[in-house]
Structures are given as structure tokens and as C-alpha cells.
Amino acid sequence: MDPMSLQNYTIPPGVHPISSDLLDLRSDSEVDHDLLHPKLVSDEKNIWFFWHSGFTHMHPYTQRNVRAWHRRFSKQGWAVRVLDRIPSSPLNVANFLDISDPSTFPRAFVDGRIGGDYAPQHTSDLVRFPLLIKYGGVYADVGLMQIGDLDRLWNKTVGDPSSRFDILTYNAGTVEERSMTNYFMCSGRNNPLFERCHKLFLELWAADGGKTSTEGMHTSPLLKGIPLLGQGGSLTFEENGKKFSPEEVSKMLSDYITQAQAITMVMGLIDEEDNWNGPKYVAEHIYAMDYMEGSQLINAMTAWDGPKAFELMSLSLPQADKQQSAGQRQAREVVEGCLQKSFGFKLAHGLILRVMGDTLGSLWRKHDGSDNVPGTYAHWLRYGTMYWAPDEVPPPLDFQVIEPYKRGPLLKAE
């Protein structure tokens, strides 16, 4: 029996239990067998992940994330796959995409020469667009915990031919900003925005005879006119005696998530030669949820203090005859808030650790199993993501047609 089913957690208002016949409640080993032996692609209901060394070498807390996606959605027709780059693996990217095709991957990917401090992350960035373009479905980071009802939202947006929405994602920033998060992207096959994003992304990698990392990509004339990530902010950090200014941090973030910068440019591009109007397409066809409440609520409620979030999630719930402490009260508010309001929660890793220090994700990584201790708030959250769903799905931001960032051909500098 699944050990989580033995828990007796309180279901928050505005949240409902998922019918047991919609859940795959077999043992972890049986779920893992399905994840390691995927069925052939038959339609667009695909959930794609990537981990360079494969599912069995993922950190346990991210394995739990992926299993939860499978348990929640496989019985509704979704196929969950964690692609890798292991030569003998049936989940090797090469079994799904032509890795020798220069219109699909840059030379550095083909040759295994992607370098820099975040090579695995940038390798995964390069498989996202091709998978969605060829097969459709969802691309998600392994660090994304799913909370909301993906199948319900798919069926009213991308999966509904009569819907005006072709893309489902999160938007970082206000409704006036165009900053799609690349940790959750959903579309049907051959999406016109993602096709253009991919062309631009490959062109950025092809610069200077072929890049082996994204370092310096923020300076590309093909990205001229879009704001740097975090521009105008106050984030600084010190490392090995060197202090990085807010401007330097902004440039580092923009290089780290160049893929998102490419998306922003296409969203704000009018290319009459290609019959492309990005601002109009975004306003008419993208269902973008607010990323803060939709996927970053724990961080918002703890002021992006990773150790504080870890401390709260590690607390045990009060016994029936005990008064809850201030920490337990805050932890309850966090868990209930996520389960009621959010569509997911993105555990942060990568460059953010250099800038802001430890996150909840990095601390779950350091303290193996701490996210899965029965009776804690972390376990209550995990339980809720598997057995329950919010009554409502987050509404889309009301995108309007904005002034373009650029007028002219996608692959030509102004």
C-alpha cells in the first residue's frame, strides 16, 4: 500500500480530493518501471522532463516530483517521460529527436561540448522547443511540483480545438511584461511562437562560429531592445572577494536564461516578411498564469528566504491537544496557500544559489528525505499535490497588444 495513503491530513477549504480511480497508487518501484519503459508517443498528451544522467540518477526529491506527475495524470492519458543522454537508454534524446539535424540542435549539443558552469541546465534548455514542436504537450523542469489540475486546464485551452489559447505557461512580472518562464511550457505540435523561438535560440548558439555556452549572449544584436532579466533591481552578491553589482547580476541572469530572452523577443516581434505579429499573438493565444502566486508562492510568503522555508516545511504538525506555535501557524498558511491558490511550485536551483544563497530545493537536496517525513508540513504539501486539487484553476493574465520590441526580420539585427 502507498504509505502516503495512511496519512490523515486536513484538506484546506477550496480544495477537493481527487477520485481514487484517477490516481496511480501502485508502489514507487512499479511507477518507476513505467517511467523507465515509456510507451510510444501517440498523441499530444505528453509530459516531458530531462535529466542528463537519467531518472535513476536524479535526486530523490525530484524523483518524487516526477512520480507525482505520473500518479496524478497517467490515468487521464498523459505519458510522462524523463529523457536523458545515456547512450544505451531507451529515453535517450536521440530516440525522439534527430540530434544530427542542425535545424534541431547546435553543434555543441551534437558533439557534447556544451560547457560553462551550468552545462546540464543549458543542455536541457535545448531539448524543450524541439520536443514541443515535434510532439506537443508539456515541458516541465524536474524541480516543478504540480498542484493544479493540468488535465482540466489542458481540456479548456490547448486540448480544445475551439479554444483561442494555443500556449499554457507562467508569466514572470506584470501583465504589461512579456517574460515567459521556461520551466513550464505547454502547447500542441508545430506551435508558431515556439518554432520562431527555436530558430532564434539556435541562431544565438551559432554566433561566433558556434557557441559552447550561453555566456555573453545577452549582448547579441538579435536581442537588442528587450530588457535584461532583473533589470533595475537591487540584487547583489559577493563571491571569492568580488562583489557583483545589480547590473552584473542582471547580465548573468539574462545569460543563464537566454532561452527566456529569446521567447520575450519573439513575443514582442513584428516581422512582416514572415507574417508574424508577436504582440497580437500573445494577447490572443497565450494563457499565462501569474508566476508568483501560480508557481512561487512559498518564496513569496517567506521573502525568498530558503533556510526559513526549509525550517517551516520541516516542522511537525501540532498534536491534537497542543497549541500551534507561530512557526507552525506560518507553515500552515504556506501549505494551505499553495494548495488553494497555486498551479505548481518551482523549486529553485542553479544560478539563483550564487545570487541568493540556499533555497528550499537546494536544502531538500542537501538533507535527503527531509521533504518526505510523515507528519511534517513538507509531507502534508506532498500529500496534497498527489491526492487533492484546487477547486479552481488560476485565471490567465489579461494580456493586451503592446508596442513591439522590434520590427523587422527575426534573424537580422536592427
UniProtKB/TrEMBL annotation:
InterPro entries: AfumC-like_glycosyl_Trfase, Nucleotide-diphossugar_trans. GO terms for molecular function: glycosyltransferase activity. Transmembrane segments: none annotated. It holds the Pfam family Caps_synth. Coiled coil: none annotated. Gene3D superfamilies: 3.90.550.20. This is Capsule polysaccharide biosynthesis protein. The lineage of its organism: Eukaryota, Fungi, Dikarya, Ascomycota, Pezizomycotina.
